């Protein structure tokens, strides 16, 4: 690969596939079941929140408001005009006790008068609700013995990579200008090696989530060709890099519809230690309302016999190991 190790390009693109907005894919809870599934956007659990996140067992959609009472759902509860004097009596008693406690606190120097409110007792506190935040699941266990796990927590896609590859920090991202305003995560660099005093990388795995505004096959082809040229173009020699792609074929990723495509990137010999061929493959998985895309490449031929270039064997195994994490 002609890019240096860790050379992840964050330059935003200007055209191409639309981004998913940083939202996790909406994997259905059951691929063979009816549509529905997750609510995304950083505010929802993969399996959806209950009526009220602070009280998932609240009856009939009632919302817990504190003080041991529920606010009745619209259209339900007591008829209008009737007041529960017992509840009002309890509230008056609580307020009186709270006022006494604050007064004692001021007297003994354990509370400061003026401007500070007891937690939960301020104006409008009874109507304050906590907005739930979505937390992605942790990275799964590896499946290929002796390898390690690459994981895109935003797309919730995991894939195993060889032991001598380098799983980068989850906060790093990557972009390919020719693909537009898309951000890749779950970054893995292939093995690092020295070439003429410059450290280069022998492969790469990246993944992202995009809107399903094109067919899966077309998406797979575009990602394969444009990623291949981007990975292996050095010093603006894009015209000397060719990407020969096979026809896309249908696949299944743990019950989810998918398409995968493989190809070969060819480039002129620029140095004995740089590749002249590389294997590249793309996997596109249909989530509930998006595509999850994995791109993997690795050097397959170079003039020098060392280091090895096992891309033909490595890339298919990485794709085979890809799975959604729920």
UniProtKB/TrEMBL annotation:
<dbReference type="InterPro" id="IPR058330">
    <property type="entry name" value="DUF8017"/>
</dbReference>
<keyword id="KW-1133">Transmembrane helix</keyword>
<feature type="region of interest" description="Disordered">
    <location>
        <begin position="299"/>
        <end position="326"/>
    </location>
</feature>
<feature type="compositionally biased region" description="Polar residues">
    <location>
        <begin position="47"/>
        <end position="61"/>
    </location>
</feature>
<protein>
    <recommendedName>
        <fullName>DUF8017 domain-containing protein</fullName>
    </recommendedName>
</protein>
<keyword id="KW-0812">Transmembrane</keyword>
<feature type="transmembrane region" description="Helical">
    <location>
        <begin position="85"/>
        <end position="108"/>
    </location>
</feature>
<dbReference type="Pfam" id="PF26056">
    <property type="entry name" value="DUF8017"/>
</dbReference>
<feature type="region of interest" description="Disordered">
    <location>
        <begin position="1"/>
        <end position="80"/>
    </location>
</feature>
<feature type="domain" description="DUF8017">
    <location>
        <begin position="144"/>
        <end position="325"/>
    </location>
</feature>
<keyword id="KW-0472">Membrane</keyword>
């Amino acid at each position: 690969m002609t890019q240096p190790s860790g050379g992840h390009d964050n330059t935003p693109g200007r055209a191409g596939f639309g981004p998913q907005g940083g939202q996790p894919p909406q994997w259905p809870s059951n691929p063979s079941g009816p549509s529905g599934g997750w609510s995304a956007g950083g505010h929802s659990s993969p399996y959806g929140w209950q009526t009220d996140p602070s009280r998932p067992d609240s009856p009939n959609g009632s919302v817990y408001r504190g003080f041991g009472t529920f606010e009745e759902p619209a259209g339900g509860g007591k008829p209008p005009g009737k007041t529960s004097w017992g509840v009002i009596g309890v509230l008056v008693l609580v307020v009186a006790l709270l006022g006494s406690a604050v007064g004692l606190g001021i007297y003994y120097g354990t509370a400061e008068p003026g401007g500070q409110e007891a937690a939960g007792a301020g104006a409008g506190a009874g109507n304050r609700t906590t907005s739930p935040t979505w937390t992605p699941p942790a990275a799964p266990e590896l499946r290929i013995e002796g390898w390690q796990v690459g994981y895109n927590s935003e797309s919730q896609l995991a894939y195993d990579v060889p032991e001598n590859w380098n799983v980068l920090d989850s906060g790093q991202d990557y972009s390919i200008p020719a693909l537009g305003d898309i951000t890749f995560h779950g970054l893995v660099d292939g093995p690092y090696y020295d070439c003429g005093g410059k450290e280069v990388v022998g492969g790469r795995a990246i993944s992202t989530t995009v809107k399903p505004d094109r067919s899966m096959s077309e998406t797979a082809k575009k990602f394969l060709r444009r990623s291949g040229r981007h990975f292996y173009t050095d010093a603006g020699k894009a015209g000397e890099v060719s990407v020969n792609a096979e026809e896309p074929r249908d696949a299944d990723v743990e019950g989810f519809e998918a398409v995968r495509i493989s190809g070969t990137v060819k480039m002129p010999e620029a140095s004995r230690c740089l590749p002249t061929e590389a294997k590249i493959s793309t996997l596109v998985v249909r989530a509930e309302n998006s595509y999850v895309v994995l791109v993997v490449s690795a050097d397959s031929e170079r003039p020098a016999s060392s280091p090895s270039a096992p891309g033909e064997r490595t890339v298919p195994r990485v794709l085979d190991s890809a799975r959604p994490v729920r």
